[in-house]
Every structure is written in C-alpha cells, then in structure tokens.
Amino acid sequence: MEDVIIIGGGICGCSLLYELSRYKLKVLLLEKENDVACGTSKANSAIVHAGYDPEPDTSMARFNVEGNILIERLCRDLDIMYKKTGSLVVGFGEEDRRSIEKLLEKGNKNRVPDLRIIEGEELFRLEPNLSREASCALYAPSAGIVCPWELASAQAECAVRGGAKVELDCEVRGIKKEGGGFTVTSGRGNYQSRFVVNAAGVDSDTVSRMVEPEFFAITPKSGEYFILDTTESNLVNTVVFPCPSKLGKGVLVAPTVHGNIIVGPDSKDFKRGDYATTAVGLEYVRRNALRSIPSINFRASIRNFSGLRADAGLEDFIVGESREAPGFFNIAAVKSPGLTSSPSIAREIAGQLNRSGLAFEPNPQFQAKRRVKRFRDMNEEERRAAIRENPLYGNIVCRCETVTEGEIIDALERPLPPRSLDALKRRCAPGMGRCQGGFCGSRVLALIARHFNLKPEDVPKDRRGMYIITGETKKGGAP
To answer: Which of 2, 9, 208, 343 has the most crowded CB, counting CB atoms within 10 A?
Structure first.
C-alpha cells in the first residue's frame, strides 16, 4: 500500500511529489498522458506573478505571494530557467488609473514587495516600445518568467531519484474508499493508498465526483498565443499587461526564458480535446496586443498554440481535505496564478497530510539539487571541457537552439525519460527554435528510436496517437 497517491502530473502534482519526497514515504503519481506537464502546465503564459491580482484574505493571494518567493529558490536549486523581469499593468486614461490604484491597494494588502505606480519618463525608460498613449503603469519588480514545463519535470525527476514513483499512461477510472484507505482503479490495474490527492487539472471535477458529491464544476477556458522569433527579443523587458477585465488578466506581451516573445491569450470556453487555434482568436490577440506595444512584428511568429485554464467560476482555489471522504484531498480550480502558487500549495497539502496522520521522517535520499548542461549558455572554455568529457557535446543536432547530441542523450537517460519529440523538446529544447524542428526533427526522432530500441513509426509527436511517420516509402535502390 502507498502512503499517498497523487492523481495528475501537472505542475501542482509534480510540486507535491517533490515536496513529499523530502520524507520517507511511499508516494505514487498517476498521469494519464505519456509525460508529465502535458496539459495546462505546458501551455500557459509562463509568468511568475507578483500577487497583486488575487482578492485579499484568500488562499490564492497567500499562495501567490509565497509561491513567488519559493519558485526563485526552487529554480536556483534545481537549475530551472528563470528570470526576474518585473511586470507592468499599463493604463490608458483616468479609468485605467483608478483600476491600477485598486490593484495597488490589493497588492499592498497581499504584501507584495516594492509595488508602485510609475509614469512619464520612468515608464518609457523601462519599456521604450510601449505605446505613447500609455499614461501610467503598476510596476511589480518581484514578477518574473520561468520555463513552466521544466519546473514540473525537474521536480518529478528529483522526486523519482529520491524514491518516489510515477506511472505514465495511467488514467484513473475509479476511486473507492474502503478500510483505512482507498483503492484507485486505472487502465493499468488497481492501487491502494492511505491518502489520495486529486491534482487532475481540468479533469479534477471528474476525479472528485468519484469519491464525493459534486460541489464544483470545471469549465475549461482556452487561450491562444503567438510565439515570436528570438529576433524580436528586445521588444519588451518586462511582462506587459493591460488593465484586467472580467475575462482575465488580458493580452500580455512578455519575454520568455528561451529568448522569444510570447503574446496572448484570448479567453473562450474550451471544447474538450480541441486544442486548435483560430483566425478569430489570434486576430483578437493581435489587435489587443498592438494597443500596448504598437511595434510588434507578427510576421516574426514561429508558432501559435492554445493553452487551458481550469476555471470553476470561483475567486479562490480549492485546496484541502474532503469533508465527505476524509483522506481525500483536492487541488482544484487552479487557474492563474496556479503556476506561481504551486510550490506553496504543495507545502500546504503536505502540512495537511501530516496533520491528518501521515508521519514525516526526513528522507536521506532526498534530491535537493540538480544541474543541467546547456551548451548554448556555455562559454568557449566550458564548451571545450564538455566536449572533452563527452564528445557527443561536439555534435550540434538543433542549429536554431544550439542543442547537442550530448544534451539529448543526457535527457533520455534521466528519470522519466521523454519518449516523444515534444517531450524531449520540453527537456532540452531541440525543435523549439525558428524552424520548429523542420531541420532537426528527423534526427531527434532517430535518436529517440535508437535509444529505446523503438521503430521510428512508434515515436509520437507528443501524445499517444500523434504519429509522425507510418513507415518507409521506398526500399532498396532504383529499379
């Protein structure tokens, strides 16, 4: 029997797995996809929010501000790509200024550090490409940007190194409370555990209904984005938001840790399974983004994508133990700022599990640190040393992102190895650049197939069934 089963391998599930791996516990994470961070955690704005937006005295406000601090430490310990850029909420006129003043008041109540309103020369010195119609902005220096899927996978990898377990391709189909714990039924068999934590993202309401009466319902919201080439990297220095509306924080323009610019999202109800982008949605994003930054060159777009948000129509997250089924915990309705809040939520649930009878004894195998070799970021001396140690670091596979064969093999040999092109891209970035894998994709596919002794046609693009090739078109020589 496990001590804890976590359902869902998004950022909250992986953060909890890492947090519980500090202790000598039997912890198992079940994820229905073929990799962690396959849902909302891989397709979002990648912002570490400062914490001025949540309503004061909510758990969301507390988790956001605490998480902002914890993520910076976590990224330093686990060598996760992160940058403290600061953010601006930009106002155009007196009505917007009143909204910004309200955000400042909320932020001060939430204890967001160094929050202030800026205008005039100071505003345009910080963001030279900002629309000259902008009159003021709320400046939050503690905001930042992060690699969201790496934040999830790095924690999961370290947890597995410390003794935790992860089962992929393992969709939960039922949960039954019996005896002193639960039986969790999946497509890969049954699992028993003393405690169960529901961190299933947009499916968290479905999982919750397996053990307790319905008390929340998720209406997933999708948002469409542009990713601009690194040639546009000087467009903005901070995360630039408009004033928020009832639809959310609005269309942002922000740098990414990989040197690109992200623009988006819109907001609309999501049809389950439909991740398509639309001309209407992208035009909405384009039109609204240009109001803040008129010089955006959308011809430099190298990719569009649609991300999800688990919206339950609430002003707060659902985090805690079920009243109807003691021992069952929910981490649900985690929309923005869920990414930022995730390490704080993990600490909260760990504390509640401890108070519910789960004994915490330090785990001597806990992996508190990790280091990743990134050839692109090395200086010449470091590159020569890496090649001397492993000649595969001298073989560039992805030219756009300067990713070597050595980095790819290292990623394939880690815990939770990636078995699809996109999963590998989330580990070390081949195919993330201007050509989006058009040049290196076939080579990356061959490396994955060779490493795992797979047929090339058995290597998917991302999720199961997303095939790339189906077989050979020609055999032998010319007739």
So the answer is: 9
